Structures are given as C-alpha cells and as structure tokens.
Amino acid sequence: MTASSASHYDVIIIGAGAAGLMCAATAGYRGRRVLVIDHANKPGKKILMSGGGRCNFTNLNSTPANFLSDNPHYCISALKRYTPQDFLELVDRHGIDHEEKAPGQLFCKDSAKDILNMLLTECEWAGAEIRLKTAVTAVSETDAGYRLKTGSGPLTCEALVIATGGLSIPTMGATGFGYEIARQFGLEVLPTRAGLVPFTLQPELKTQLAPLAGISCPVDAECNRQHFREPMLVTHRGLSGPAMLQISSYWYPGDDISINLLPTQQIEDDLMGLRKQKPRTTVAQYLAEYLPKRFASAFNELHGWTGPLQEYKNADIEQVANTLGDWTIKPAGTEGYRTAEVTLGGIDTRQLSSKTMAVLDRPNLYFIGEVVDVTGHLGGHNFQWAWASGVAAGNVA
Ligand code: FDA
C-alpha cells in the first residue's frame, strides 16, 4: 500500500481506556474524524475491573493535592476545567445509579459496565470509530501529521493522542508503548514504579502475621512525611487495604513505615489511667476494645505482653504505647506491577502544555491519562485525571 492509500483521520488516539475514550468523544463532538485503536480485544478493561467491579469513577473532593507528580502544578489547569461535578452530570444524563461509599468516592450501584457503556455510547454519538485488536508497530512524522504502521494497514492523522496508560496489570494489556513513543520524539520519561500496591513482608514478620490474614483494622500509616488514616488489611502475602495502598505511592525500597494501630487513642494516658483505676486489666483486654479480637490477641502475643497492668512500670507502659502508636515495619517490597492499581512516574509533564496536553514544541502530539507523570491517590482520583486530561486534549486535537 502506498502512503496515499493509507486511511486518514483528523485524530488518532492510541488506547481505548478511560482517557482515550473520553478524548475520542470530546474530539468527535467537535466534528473531528476520530479513530481510537487498541491492541486489546475489548475496550476499557481496567474500567471493568476497577472499584471491585463497580468503578469508583470520581471523587467529589478531588483537588490537586490528591496527585503525585514531579511537577505538581501541571494537573491543576485540566482538573479545574473538567471537574468531578462535570463527570457526575454526564453519569446522571445516562441515568447511571451511583452511590457515595466513602466521603466523596462515587461508585456505580450496579456495575462498572455502566461507565464503559456510557463512554462507548458517547463515542458512537460523537461519530468516533474504535478499532480493536490492532497493534501499532511504528509511528513516524509526516508533513501534515503522523503516519502509523498497524496490523491492519497504514493510517495517517493530523493529530496523534497517546493514551496507552501505565505498566500496571500487564495481563490487562498494559505496555510501555507510550513511553517508547515519547522517547522516539525526544521526550524525557521519568522513572516508573508501581503505586497503590500491597506490601510484601520479610519472612519472619510474614510468618508471624500469617494467622491474621483477612483481618482489617483502621490505622494511621506514615512514610516520608505523608500519612493516611484508613483501614489496613493483613493478607497471606503481606499488608494491604487502603492505608497500605495509599502509603505505597510514597514508599521507596528500604524505607520504614510507621503504623499507629490506635490512632484515635492517647495510648500512654489510657494505659496509665487503667493501671490506676482497673489495675488487673491486661494489655490484651485494652487492645481488644479497639482492635478486632483476633488481631488484638495475636499482636499481644507477638510482643509478649502478659500479666495485668499493675505489674507494668512507667517505662514498660511507655514502651507498649510506643509499639502500638509507632509500630515500625520495613517491607520486603511491593507486589509490583502485577497487582498495582497505578504506575507512578512516566512522561515528564514539563514538556507538555497543561492546557492542551500537547507536546510543547510539537502541537499535534498529545499524551493523556496515566502514561504521564500524574498519579492520584486511591478513591476515584485516577479516573478523574483520565477524564480531565482526555477532555483537555479532545477540546483541541
Ligand atoms: P488505561 O490503562 O485505562 O487504558 C490504556 C489502554 O491502552 C488499554 O486499553 C490498553 O489495552 C491500551 N494499550 C496499551 N498499550 C497499547 C499498545 N501498544 N497499542 C495499542 N493499545 C495499547 N482508578 C480510579 O480512579 N478508581 C478506581 O476504582 C480504580 N480501580 C482500579 C482497579 C484496578 C485493579 C486497577 C488496575 C486500576 C484501578 N484504577 C482506578 C486506576 C485506573 O484504572 C487508571 O488510572 C485508568 O484506567 C488510567 O486510564 P488510561 O486511559 O490512562 O489507561
């Protein structure tokens, strides 16, 4: 096939995920001829698996402070121009039932399929075409835009949008393709690592905690001056639950994590008071008031706290209080991209326009969604970034 016989589109978007589909509908409604291509056999696979199958599609309290980036101001403009309320209006227009599970966190009442179907319907109404099972093998620049070599023949376009996501969950189609394209066009890609991911433990602690698998308790987890007060879950492999997932995005190999197991209590004052008023109380009994019983007794056993409080000296009580309020662990690592919800790092946003998501010296090449160095906290923020960055590019591409 010759160059002239390649199918031509105004906009080609690589990646039929959250950001790509949102961008496609937005550009399509502007009258642009849009094609979305994806190598997967289905669009939006991560949308379907998100939020335990019910997609935590936005967070009403989302602010730029909920995002990590080497260039923290970059996300502000797009997030301001397309807000959680804007996405909620779209969801409501499609009559999708939703509920607020935790403050600000909106989930589908029935299924994440509702969000994917909504995006596909929007793409259809906007006239955007979606081509699946299509691998892109090469991208080159032309006088009028870009030329793509794909498994189903050559394509050309005026504007090219890269929406290929991050590296997490390779079995769902994640690839490093977006980073390769960025490097090909001279962009810097910041080091990537798994985020919102469970921790693995050193063998000794893993064995000690193994009997507690399945137990969850509210904690305050702290690492590198960030802390999250949310539930922690003990698993067969290590520690998970919202508190651990959130703090994992701030953790680097070798770092300690400090866990306050009783964040609502003044532990030392409580124990001193109990020793005076109810001297026969044990630490295990105190713990059982605030922690799941099985967790309380196993944690107590782990530290060998026996006997009534009347036998504890001030220094002993101080030590118990420190251990409970500042239980310090050094994870062996994380479960990595295999189970991570997101990829931290990625395309350095200093080379992109915060208004359009286009490369600064290459206005027809755009990067949106998770492939760029903007990563949200747990709780619907990552989808909000996908929607907002998709709309920002779709409005101009
Ligand atoms: P996304 O990964 O959605 O899409 C990228 C697309 O590009 C995929 O369809 C992929 O097949 C395609 N692609 C990749 N390489 C390609 C190539 N070489 N050629 C062609 N196509 C290619 N967030 C949130 O806010 N609320 C939530 O409830 C959850 N829950 C959740 C659960 C789980 C298990 C995971 C793994 C993640 C979440 N997330 C989440 C995060 C959220 O899913 C994620 O941030 C967005 O899907 C990112 O959207 P993107 O469109 O950037 O990438």
TrEMBL record:
Needed co-factor(s): FAD
RsdA/BaiN/AoA(So)-like Rossmann fold-like domain span: 10-395
Record SUPFAM superfamilies: FAD/NAD(P)-binding domain, HI0933 insert domain-like
Gene3D superfamilies: FAD/NAD(P)-binding domain (3.50.50.60), HI0933 insert domain-like (1.10.8.260), Translation factors (2.40.30.10)
Keywords: FAD, Flavoprotein
Every RsdA/BaiN/AoA(So)-like insert domain range: 193-342
Annotated InterPro entries: BaiN-like, BaiN-like_dom_sf, FAD/NAD-bd_sf, RsdA/BaiN/AoA(So)-like_dom, RsdA/BaiN/AoA(So)_Rossmann
NCBIfam families named in the record: aminoacetone oxidase family FAD-binding enzyme
PANTHER family hit by this protein: OS12G0638800 PROTEIN
Record protein name field: Flavoprotein, HI0933 family
